[in-house]
Amino acid sequence: MWVVSGNSDYIDINVVNDDILEAAGTFSIWANMDDYASDEYETLIVTIRDGTNRIYIEYYTDNTMRFYHIAGGTFKHVDIDVSAYSGWHLFSMTWNIAADEMKAYIDGSQVGVTQTGLGVMAGAFIQSSIGSHYWSGAQIEFFNGQIDEVKIYNRTLSGTDISALYNSGNQYKSDGNWTSANQTMPSGHDLRETKIYYSNVDANNNISRIEWIVDGVVKANYTNISSGTTRTITNSNLTWGSFYNVTSDYKIKLYLNGTGSATPTVSKIEMFSYGNNTIYHNNFIGNTNQSYDEIMNTWYSTDLSEGNYWSNHTSPDSNGDGIVDNPLYIDGGSNADNYPFTDKNGWIA
Description:
This protein is an all-beta fold and 349 residues long. The protein has one helix at 159-167, and strands at 2-5, 11-12, 24-33, 42-50, 53-60, 64-71, 74-81, 89-96, 101-106, 109-115, 127-130, 133-135, 138-140, 144-153, 171-174, 190-199, 205-214, 217-225, 230-234, 250-258, 265-274, 283-284, 309-310, 328-329, 336-337.
């Protein structure tokens, strides 16, 4: 997971410029904005040739998330109001020139209208980045929040594929009834967010307490929750450590408080977790906090013995092999990039 401050922090991914096809492709990125009603432009991901040839996902100042495809001067976009959003969401877009379609997705489902009448890109892309836009030779419109699970495809994923990205991989869901729900997550994952969907709640009957239970032991709880149809509990309400790398079942229990007579019916309980990612061949340049990782991710390729470039960690290199002699330790835990490069894009021969 990357934490970016909205002030000059971004991730250079120019290494993928040649792999992003003008004819067809997909962007998919998990993001948690600090403020979904911000008055600033904030870019999640962009690839660009010039002002009239670029593809990007960006938050606009009118409380919308914009999915933009500009090719040969033809502007096509989908705008979605996100002012009521909070927490983590998966933002995705696909494009296919042969099919003449551009589509936008949020949390695995298509949003807005399929865009047609696409233009044709006037050549290959020259600049790509995560967490900022690129204009007139400079990075601008920096994202403020958290970014995770960025995926770039040189093909157009189907709606089923996009839904699978949301519902599988490093996100795990569990159905349940109103009293409890079981959930098992693989080794190396950590609970980040819980969403509880319920109905039939009397206005006089509040959910006063939610407990997370592991092997019969209450590990954390959240209190003073008003009634409604959806409750979202983020990792800031949980006890860090208690939920790390647990391979047994989680259970969630809801307590009622008030004079209402109705018993809530819970249709679904979702638990979101992240971990077990391999992160390498990225340029981390000039960020206030270059990285932060509280869970189990690998910051280098074990097959290639190659990691990332860090602008604040470029020496020493006693044998001249282009790899810094000492690991770059990742804030937040015990993870490290064991093979940091001395030069930007050092993995390119």
